[in-house]
Specification:
The protein is 38% helix and 23% strand. It has a 4-stranded parallel β-sheet with strand order 2-1-3-4, sandwiched between helices. Helix 2 links the parallel strand 3 and strand 4.
Length: 93
């Protein structure tokens, strides 16, 4: 199973929670680099976690649009560890 995490500076803060949820692969867009606004979605995604504390409105709107166009569920979470764990666990169910 593969999930895209948008927001946050480093992916390592999500890795333990992803393992606990049975997620094998995490893709990450920080949302801070200009190139993040132009990337295509990775193939084989099961869903997207949008960390709302770390992305601007334009990036959030783009991610929502991409999720809708591709029929992917999107979960919004704050940066807190418990919210990230909860968001990743939704995809494991």
């Amino acid at each position: 199973m593969s999930i895209l995490v948008v927001g946050g500076d480093h992916l390592n803060q999500f890795e333990e929670s992803a393992r606990e949820a049975g997620i094998e692969r995490l893709h990450h867009w920080s949302g801070r680099r200009s190139g993040d606004h132009h990337q295509p979605l990775p193939q084989g995604l099961k869903g997207i976690v949008l960390v709302i504390d770390h992305v601007n409105h334009g990036m959030a709107a783009r991610v929502r649009r991409l999720a809708s166009q591709n029929g992917l569920p999107i979960v919004f979470a704050a940066r807190s560890r418990s919210q990230i764990r909860s968001a990743l666990a939704r995809f494991a169910a």
